[in-house]
Amino acid sequence: MAGAALVGLVLFATACAGLLSPHDPQAQSLVARLRPPGSPGYPLGTDALGRDLLSQILFGSRVSLGIGVWAVVLAMVLGTTVGLISGNYGGALDSLLMRLVDLQLAIPYLVLAISIVAIFGGGVAHLVVVMVLGGWVYYARVIRGSTVALRTMDFVQSASAAGASDVRIMVRHILPNLWSSIIVISTLQVGQMILIAATLSFLGLGLPANVPSWGGLAADGEDYLATAWWIATLPGAAIFVTTIGFNYLGDGIREVLDPKLRI
Amino acid sequence: MAFVLRRLMQAALTVFATLTVVFALVHVSGNPVGLYLPVTASSEQVRTMEHLLGFDRPLYVQYAAYVWSAAHGDLGASFSQSLPALPLVLDRLPNTLYVTLFALGMMIVVAIPLGIASATRSGSPLDFLGSGVAVFGQSVPVFWLGLVLVLVFGVNLKWFPTFGSGGLRHVVLPGVTLGTYSMGVITRLVRSSMLDTYHSDYLRTARAKGLPQARVILKHALPNAILPALTMIGLQVAYLLSGAIVTEQVFSYPGMGQLVLQAINARDFNVVQSFVMVVAAVTVLVNTTTDITYSRIDPRMTYG
Question: How far B208 CA sits from the closest chain A CA (Å)?
C-alpha cells in the first residue's frame, strides 16, 4: 500500500508537472540565485542560475521516469523473448544464450556501461541501450527457468500433440503463465533503472547537460554543497522516494502473487 | 580437485571473454581510431594513427596481437599521460581496495548479525531495523548518500575529511557510502535464509534437547544459512569495485574510479580498457576463491 501510494504520488506529480510547477524550469534569474528552500516564490529554493528547483525536479521526473520505464519495457521484451526461446528449445541454443547471460553478468554492470559510453558517447539513446543491456539478463534467466518447468506440464504437451506451432505454444500457452513474474521483475526494475540513469547522469555519462534530469541536477549542485546544500540533495531525495516506492510496490505485488511469501 | 581445475578454467575463460567483448565493442563503434583522436583530426592524422596503432591490419591479426599483448600485461599506453596504461590503473588499485575492504567489513560485521537478529526476533524493533536497512540500502542513490554524508559529517560536524586519501579517516565516509547498497542486499539475504532455516526439524530437535538459543543459532542454523550469503558477498565485490567510480567522484578520492572518469573525459581509452580488465580479473579471482571455499564447506556444491 505504501509503495502504491508513493508511486501514485510520483506519477501524479510527473503528469501534472506543468500545473504544479511555479516557474519555467529553465527560466534564469540572477537576482534569485541560490535562494534557500522556503524562499517566497521558490518552495525548494533555486540553483546557481536562479532556476526554481521544484520546477526542475518536477520536469526532470518526466525525463528520469520516462527513460526508466522505456528501458524496462525494452529489457522486458528482449529478456522475455530470449528466455522463452532458450527454455522452449533447449539444447545448444539454450547453452549459447545462457552463456551470453553469464558473460554479461560476469562483467560488472557499471563497468560495461562506462565502456559503452566511452566508446559510443552519451545521449538519451545510448543511455537507454546501456540500461536495457543491464536489465534484460534478469528476465532471460527467470523466464528461461519458468519456461523449462512449464514445458513439461500437461497443457503444453497437449497443445504440442494437437499440432500447435512452437511460436503459438510460447505465446498462447507459456507466456500467460509468466506474467506474474514479469510484472514483479518489471516493477522492481523501474526503481533500479531510475537509479542507474541518475547515477550515470551524475557522472556526466548519461544525458546531455541541456536535458533536465535528477542525476544531472544533483551533479550541478555538488560544487555548492557547503553553501547551497539543497541543490544537490533535494533531487537525490526525489530519486530515493521514487525508488523506494517502486521497491515497496514490487515487493507488495510479489507477496500478493506468491502466497508462500505472505508472512 | 577436478572441480577446482574446472573453476580455474572457467575463470580464465571469463577473463578471455571480457577481453574479447572489449575488443568487439571498440571495433563495433566504427573506426576505433576515433577513440584516440579529437573529432577535429585531419584525414592524414587519422591515417597516421591507424598505421601507428595497427588498425590498418586485418581484424583477425589485430585480435591476435591484442590478446598476445594483453597476456603480457600490455594494454597500450595512456595518451594523456604518455605512460603504460595498466601500471597507471594498478597504482590506484590499493586505494580502491581500501574502500572496498571497508565496505566488505561493513557487510560482515553489520549486515550478517543484523540479518540473523532480524530473522530470529521476528516482529521486534530489530526486525524492523533489519528490514529497514535492507530497503534503504537497495533504494538510496549512492551518490546522494555520499553527498549527504559529506554535508553532515564532513562540512557540518567536521568528524571526517571530505576529500583525498591518507589513512583510515579518509576511508570511512567513502566506505560507508559504497557499502550501504551491499549491506542492504546481504541483510535481506541473511534474514531470508535464516527464516528458511530457523523452522527446520533439526533446529527444533536441537531446541528440544535443551540447547541454549545462542548455540542453536550459531552452531546449527548459521553454518547452513550463511552459505548463500557467502556467495553473494563474493558477487558483491564486483559491484563494490565498479561502484567505487561513483564514490570516488563524490569524495575526490584518488582511486581507480576517479582515474577512469578522467580517462573518459580525456578520451584516453587504453586506461578505460585497463580498468575494465583489472576489475574483471579481481572479480573472477574473488568469485573463483568463493566457489572453491564454498565447495570445501559444502561438498554438494562441486557441480560444473
Answer: 24
